[in-house]
Amino acid sequence: MRDHLKFVAVGHVDHGKSTLIGRLLYDTNSLPPDKMDEVRMASEENDGVPEFAFVMDHLEEERRNRVTIDTAQIFFKTAKREYVIIDAPGHKQFLKNMITGSTQAEAALLLVAAEEGLQEQTHRHAYMLSLLGIRQLLIVINKMDLVNYDQQRFEQIKKDITKRLEEFGMEPPLMTIPIVSTLGENVARRSDKMDWYDGMTLLEGLDQLQPAPSAQNGRLRFPVQDIYELEGEKVLVGRLASGTLRNGQDIMFHPLGKTATVDYIKVFGASKDQAIAGESIGIVLKNKNAMQGLARGEVACDLSPSPHVHNTIVATVFWMNGEPLRKDETIDLKCATRQVSCKVKKITDRMNSSTLEIIATDAKDLHDTEVAKLTLKADGYVCMDPFESVAETGRFVLMRDNDTVAGGILH
Amino acid sequence: MTTAKHNPKLMVLSIDGVPFALMRRMMDDGVMPNMAGLAGNVGIRQMRSVQPTVSCVAWASYMTGKNPGKHGIYGFIDRRTESYDLMFPNSATMSAENIWEVLSRADKRVFGMNVPSSYPPRRVNGILIGDFLAPTIEKAAYPAGESEYLRSIDYRIDSDAQLARRDKRAMLADLDKTLDTRMEAMFHYLDKESWDFFHTHIMGSDRINHFLWQKMEDNDPEFAPAFFAYYRRIDKAIGRLLEQLPDIPLLIFSDHGFCRIKQEVQLSRYLVETGWTTPAQEIVHPLSVDPAKSKAYCLIPGRIYVNLLGREPGGIVPLEKYQQVRKRLAEDLLKLRDPETGENVIKKVVMRENVYWPSDREKNATMEPEQSAMYKGTYGKAADLIAIPYDGYDLKLGLAGNKILQKTELEGMHTYDDAFMVARGIELPKDDLEILMLARPILDKLGVEPPNDMDGTGSAITPRF
Amino acid sequence: MDKLDELESQSIYIIREAYYHYKKLAMLWSIGKDSSTMVWLVRKAFFGKVPFPALHIDTSYKFPQMYKFRDEYSRKWGLDLVITRNEKALAAGMTCKKKLECCTALKTEALKIAIAKHGFDALLLGIRRDEHGIRAKERVFSPRDEEFKWNYQDQPPELWDQFKSQAEEQTHIRVHPLLGWTELDIWKYIKREQIPITELYFAKNGKRYRSIGCTTCCNPVDSNAATIDDMINELETTTTSERAGRAQDKEDTYTMQKLRALGYM
Question: Of C254, C255, C259, which to mutate for an interface test with B (greatest number of B Cβ within 10 Å)?
Answer without folding.
Answer: C255
